[in-house]
Every structure is written in structure tokens, then in C-alpha cells.
Amino acid sequence: MSSPTSTPTLSGPPTVDQPAAEPPALCSGAARSEVARHLQAVLDLSDPYPVVNAARELAAGALERALADVIAGRLLHEPTGRRIPLQELPARTIAALTRTHHLDADQSDTLGFALRCAFAWPGVVGTPDAPYALKSVLPAGFAPIATVEQIAASQATAGPDGLNTTYMISQMKGGMSADFGIGCPLMCAYCYRREGDTVDGYLGSWEPTGFLEPEDVVARLLSHPWFTPHHTPIGLHMSTSEAFLPKLWPRTWRALQLLDELGLTNRVSCITKYTLSDEQIDCLESLVHVDLDINVCYAAMPESIEPPNRGRRLRFLRRILHSDKINVLAYYRPIAEGLNTTDAHLRHVWQTFKDADARTVVLGGLKFADDHVHSFMSYGLPLPAGSFTPGKKLLTAGTEARIMAAFDEVYADVAPNWRPAVLKRSSCGRAVERGSHIPDYNGHYDQPTTNCRLRCPAAQHEVCAAAQPPDEETVRHLLARIGKPDARVDITGTTVVVHAELSQFERTFLRQNLLFPVHTARQAAELVAARITR
Ligand code: SF4
């Protein structure tokens, strides 16, 4: 990247009308993009502090002192040497510096901008001065694999749950799923990734097939107009397979390395019923940028229904929970009435999690459809009880209450503050497990009586309650990326109301970028009506 011919300043040159004590106003608009180019010219992903130092040289007064503190305290890194994810900087770094140096709102905003310059911005979206906008100039050497319009069109062909088997990058509820191929040999009888097949697995085969190379998957992600560097939660193989199968591990690991080498601090999730060796865990612990979470599923499901080896899986859960570099969630799922919900089952699962020192547990019910009924019957398996709605996980309030009663029994000798968090939603669990620095990225706090009633820590409740509405420019940048640049928008203290049709995936995309609830006008009216009649 070439340096500009003249050095821009964070504060701008002092003039008669504009004293040097008022720097940030000059950083908005076009001037800020020029400053960003200047600062990013010295970006080295292995050492971001020269960028901060370059920003410091352009600043004055309290802002200069705040930037000096970032360098002196290495405030872009955790003590383990990992980068603090960009999304967490406002809570972990900027808020404290703002208080310490009495920065006003504009100075604090400028500090955030300067620190964003110390992060890489690969792909078609985002620059330090406009993190949510499609780029007008692509990074040198980067060629998207298809146009934004072509990729958006392929997203429109996704299935009812968002899975895009054409492009293999899909906007799902848990984040953007990057899928390499289709198939999983573990043969869980309740697997819902069978696309209408009965006993024969994915598209007629349980064997993973048609893998993409990791380089191709990452290029697809970077080319996707819905992928925001450092913001979009990513799932690897979340929709079509199992990340740690021996056949898939090399691809999973390579993709993680590629994301890490790009300097991306996005949250990345891998959900597993498989295991990893100590050497493989060492690999994961060596990641510096990527903000990984591993979600280990265990619900004491009979092995006739869920074959992956339980003992090995639980040893792996115990082992990886002792890593100080990896976020680990105990996934208590699937819970299926009649299959794994006797009192003995419930106590056993909680005892298992207690023995493993689980910190964060996420509950989840079972999705069950007509083809599962045929499949279970053909295998001679017992059917789960309950009334299932297609595409929805079932976990009744009664079962949930019994689960929590068993929790209280098993953890009776543990002080409440030392008991694990128990959440209903994965996105909540991921926020809590990372230390409660950002609100739930799916905005579930818009319905607290439904979503927040288990054991979410007080600190996380406070963070969710304090979530700030976005500014309209950010919302506009995001709406442009889903082809609705002119949709009317109302931003209130509790939600962003978009006066246009939004698919559930578009709404998820908006919510996950804004970290704030988003509703269509009709949904907002229904929410208000429900509160009035409650
Ligand atoms: S407060 Fe509610 S929405 Fe926020 S993380 Fe906790 S359970 Fe989720």
C-alpha cells in the first residue's frame, strides 16, 4: 500500500477557527479514510503497535496519552499473547481509557477508529473508517470468486434453515456456516441433515463427499457480501458435517490457520461429538487472532441413537476444558423427552459436567420430522415423546424445569457463584463463556422472560441491558449489503425497526452485525401487543 504524499493528521492542523484541542471532528468523512490508509501502511499483523504509535504521532492531548497507554500496556493483547478481538475492544480497552483520560464522545470514537487501523480488513467488506460497508476499493491482490450480486443471488436459493448448498457459505442462526462438503459417518439417528432421506444418511450416503479445499472456502467467505471481518460469527462445518473427523481435521485446521494468518478476530465455532488429541489441541491453542469456541455435545443419549463413543468424548471434554486459550461450551443437547430425560439421565449429565468443571452449558431440544419417524421405526428405535413442529427444536417448559431441578440437586454443595452458567441459546453461551464483554449477538434479550430465565450471569445481563442502538449510517451500510439501501428505518432504544420485508436470514445478518435486536414493522407491533396483553 503506498503512503499518501502528505501526512494526514488525526486532529488536523490547528487553525484560527479550529484549535488543536478539538481533534476528532476532523476525523470523520473523507479525511478519516485518508488517515486509515496512512496508518495501515505500517500494519504488521505480528506487531500492531507501530500502527498505534503512528496514530499517537498524529494525535494530541488526552487522545495521545490514551494511545500511548495502549502501546505501553500492550492493550491489544491478552496476557496469553492472543489478540483481543476487535468486537471486545470497546468494553475491554476503550471504555477504561475513556474514563482514565476523560475523553469526550468524539475523542473516544476517534480512539476506536485508530485502534481499528491496527486490524486487517481482508475481503469485500469493511475498512477502519467504515467497518460495515462494502469496500469501494478491494485490497491489493484480492480477487473475489464471484460478484456480490451473484453471491447474493445464490443466498436466495438457500433451504428453509439457510443452508446454501450451491455456494457452501450460509447465513445461519448461529453465524455464517462455512461448509467444505456434505456427509458425516457418525450416523446419529436424529440427524436432520438428510434432506428427506430416511435411513441412508446425507443425500443417500453417510460418507462425507465433495470437499472443497480450505483455501477455496476462505475465499468464498471473504467474497461474501454478508461477511464482516471481525464481526460475523463463523461456524466451520456447522451445517453439513463434523469438524474434527479424521478425514476433515486437516481441512478444519488449515482453514483456521488461514483465517488466523489473515488477522481475523471473528468468533469461530466448531460443534463436535468427536474428539481431538493433545497435539491437535496444541494446534488450536497456537491460534493468535481467531476467537475459537469448541462446543462438545453430551446429553446421555443412548448409543443406539447417538453412536459416537461417549467415554472418549467425555475425556476430551475434561481435557479441553482445562485449556486457558480455548472457549469451551458443554452442549447439553439434544434433549429428547422419553429418550434421555429420566431423573437418572438428568442427574448423570449434570454430574458429568460437574466432574469435568464445565463453566458454560447450553441446553437444546430435538428437531424431529416425519422422515425421522420412519427412520427410527426402520431401525427399531424408540420414538421420542412430544409434539414436534417441523424445523423447530422441542424442549418443553416442564422438561426444562426438571433439568434445572436436577441441576440444583447436583450442584447443591457448590456456592451459587461457582456453579456453571446455563443458557438456552448458543449465542448467549458464547458471549458468557468469553467473559461477558458483548451482548448476545442474536439479541435474545428482547424477550427476557423466554430467553433469559435460566442461569445467565448478572454481568452478562448488565451487558445485554446496556446494549446501545446503532447509528443510522451503520444500519444503511448493512441494508445496502442485502439490497435494501433505501428501506425506511426507525432506531429506538430497544430495537431497529426496518420497514421492509426481511427474510429470517437477512434479519439474522443485521442483528449479528449490530449486536442489537432487529424487527420488521409487523414483528415490532406484535412484540408491543404481546407486552400489553401480558
Ligand atoms: S441476558 Fe438474556 S440475551 Fe443476554 S446473554 Fe443472558 S440469556 Fe442471553
UniProtKB/TrEMBL annotation:
Q: Where is this region: Disordered?
A: 1-25
List all Low complexity biased stretches.
1-15
Q: Is Secreted included in the keywords of this UniProt record?
A: no
Keywords assigned by UniProt, alphabetized: Iron, Iron-sulfur, Metal-binding
InterPro entries, A to Z: Aldolase_TIM, MJ0683-like
Q: Output this protein's name.
A: Radical SAM protein
